[in-house]
Write a structure and sequence with these properties.
single chain; mainly alpha; about 85% helix
Length: about 190
C-alpha cells in the first residue's frame, strides 16, 4: 500500500523513497477522487524534494503545479499566492511557458477569490497568450472563464458574457466545477443584460 510505504519510509528517514511514495500516494488519492488527501500527499512530497540540495527544479515545479490544483480549495489564498510566486520564479528561470500559463491562471484565481479583481485580470491576461502560444486550450478556457467571472463581479456584463461564452466552449469535459461556476456567472450576465 503506497500510503503506508510513504509513511514508513518517511519515519525511517529514507527521504528519497518517502518522496516517491508520497508522490504515488498523491496520484492514487487523485484517482480515488480523494482530493484533500492528494493535496496533502503532494505537499509532503514537495517538502521532501525541496529540502534536497540537488533538487530538479522542473520536477519541483511540476509537483508544485499539482499542489496548486487543490490548494485554492484547502489553504489560505494569500499563502497560495506566495507559493505560486515561488513556482513562477522557477518557471521563468527555466523558460517554461506552458507551466507559466497554468501558474498565471491559478494566480488570477487566487486573486479573484480574495477580491483583488485588478490583479486577477492582470494574471488571467498573462495566462491567455501563454496558453495560446503553447496550444493549451484547457488553460485558455479556464483563463477566459476566470476573466469573465471577474468581469461579472465588476458588473462589466458585456465583457463578462464575451469571455465566459468563449471560455466555456474551450473547457475540457472534466472541468465540471469551473463549468458550473462559469455557467452561473454567464446566467447572471444574461439576466443583467
Amino acid at each position: 500500500d503506497v500510503f503506508l510505504l510513504a509513511y514508513h519510509y518517511n519515519k525511517a528517514q529514507k527521504f528519497e523513497k518517502a518522496y516517491n511514495y508520497f508522490k504515488k500516494a498523491g496520484a492514487t488519492a487523485e484517482k480515488r477522487l480523494a482530493y484533500f488527501d492528494a493535496y496533502n500527499y503532494y505537499v509532503k512530497a514537495y517538502r521532501l524534494l525541496n529540502q534536497n540540495q540537488n533538487v530538479n527544479k522542473s520536477e519541483l515545479l511540476n509537483l508544485g503545479l499539482k499542489i496548486s490544483t487543490y490548494s485554492w480549495m484547502y489553504d489560505d489564498f494569500q499563502k497560495n499566492i506566495e507559493f505560486l510566486i515561488v513556482l513562477e520564479n522557477i518557471a521563468l528561470d527555466l523558460n517554461l511557458d506552458e507551466q507559466l500559463a497554468t501558474l498565471y491562471f491559478y494566480m488570477g484565481k487566487n486573486y479573484f477569490l480574495i477580491g483583488n479583481n485588478e490583479d486577477a485580470i492582470k494574471y488571467f491576461d498573462q495566462a491567455i497568450p501563454k496558453a495560446e502560444k503553447t496550444k493549451r486550450n484547457d488553460i485558455l478556457g479556464l483563463s477566459y472563464c476566470g476573466k469573465g467571472r471577474t468581469y461579472a463581479t465588476l458588473f462589466l456584463i458585456n465583457d463578462a458574457i464575451s469571455y465566459l461564452e468563449t471560455g466555456i466552449e474551450l473547457l475540457p469535459e472534466n472541468e465540471k466545477q469551473e463549468f458550473f461556476f462559469s455557467l452561473g456567472a454567464l446566467t447572471f450576465g444574461y439576466a443583467m443584460k
